[in-house]
Amino acid sequence: MRNILITGCCGFIGYKVSELLLGQGYSVTGVDSMNDYYDPRLKEWRLEKLKVNGSFHFHQCDIGDYNSVKTVFSNYKIDAVINLAARAGVRASVEDPWAYLDTNLKGTLNLLECCKTNDVKKFVLASTSSVYGDNKKMPFSVTDNTDHTLAPYSATKKGAEVMCYSYHYLYGIDTTIFRYFTVYGPAGRPDMSIFKFIKNIDLGRPIPVFGNGKQKRDFTYIDDIADGTIKGLKGVGYEIFNLGNDRPVELMYVINMIEERLGKKAEMQWLPLHPADITATWADINSSKERLNWSPKTSIEEGIEKTVNWYMENRDFVRNLKDAQ
């Protein structure tokens, strides 16, 4: 298994997974639509870093376009697919659910069809902790009911999980599905809270805080997510795993750490809790430890420090990026 197709290779997680695979001696065929959900200059920044490696091959491709996906498969011998292309964001999916259907569900179907046609027997899908809805039982287990998603984003991800099972059952495609828990880190997504907090506090602008700031998240550092994702290339049949830090913390705790590391106080813009927001997340990662020999290595304190350091090293570039919604 030497040539891996990474969809969404210029996205936050796709970039880090591609970088790690290349460092391990794999060839990576990367595809990305380079859409403007957030400032494409950050995606271009990540892409330029990947292009330095001669084992990386890039194609601009929207996985929602079946003919474009077929072209990629016809041009390369693909040994496995890691599908990290997605329309992400709970609140944005409420405003434009059609984009989420096209990429998250139709795009996954297009990739599975090409795997079937080209006899690619390994498929890794990025899903989300949002499929658990506002589950009150903690921590969230992969055996919990996920029939009550709160937004189109999580609904399309749940649909993609089920579509993968159909192709595993019908065509024997070995499938690993990861439910990621609030991923953060250097070169992250500008629409995510930690990225927004760091930039706005540094610029002296108010930071948006939904609810009372006491909601808890199982923040998971990007390097740990990438490591777990690559471990998912092993044969599992069909299995779903949680990738989380196994240590939920309050949003205000994270804000206070960022304030301390920047040496600046935050001005809060208090906003009502969105009806699609989840009050708390916490990952049960026992099966990931046992089946994949994976566990997170980066504490929230260490991860925030690394993220702030990256911001300071790239401060002028990040300040000039268009603000995400």
Can you put this structure into words, describing what you see?
The protein has a domain at 3-184 and 220-245 and 282-297: 3-Layer(aba) Sandwich (Rossmann fold), CATH 3.40.50. 43% of the residues lie in helices and 17% in strands. The chain has helices at residues 12-23, 40-51, 66-75, 90-95, 97-117, 152-171, 193-203, 222-231, 251-262, 286-292, 300-313, 315-320, and strands at residues 3-7, 27-32, 56-60, 80-83, 122-128, 174-180, 183-184, 207-210, 216-217, 220-221, 238-243, 249-250, 268-271. It is an alpha/beta fold. Strand 5, helix 6 and strand 6 form a beta-alpha-beta unit. It has twelve helices and 13 strands. Helix 5 (97-117) runs parallel beside helix 6 (152-171) and helix 7 (193-203) packs parallel to helix 9. The protein has a seven-stranded parallel β-sheet, sandwiched between helices. It has a two-stranded parallel sheet with strand order 7-10. A two-stranded parallel sheet has the order 8-13. The mean pLDDT is 96.
Lay out the secondary structure:
Blueprint: E1 3-7, H1 12-23, E2 27-32, H2 40-51, E3 56-60, H3 66-75, E4 80-83, H4 90-95, H5 97-117, E5 122-128, H6 152-171, E6 174-180, E7 183-184, H7 193-203, E8 207-210, E9 216-217, E10 220-221, H8 222-231, E11 238-243, E12 249-250, H9 251-262, E13 268-271, H10 286-292, H11 300-313, H12 315-320
Parallel strand pairs: 1-2, 1-4, 2-3, 4-5, 5-6, 6-11, 7-10, 8-13
Antiparallel strand pairs: 9-12
Helix pairs in contact: 1-2, 1-8, 3-5, 5-6, 7-9, 7-11, 9-11
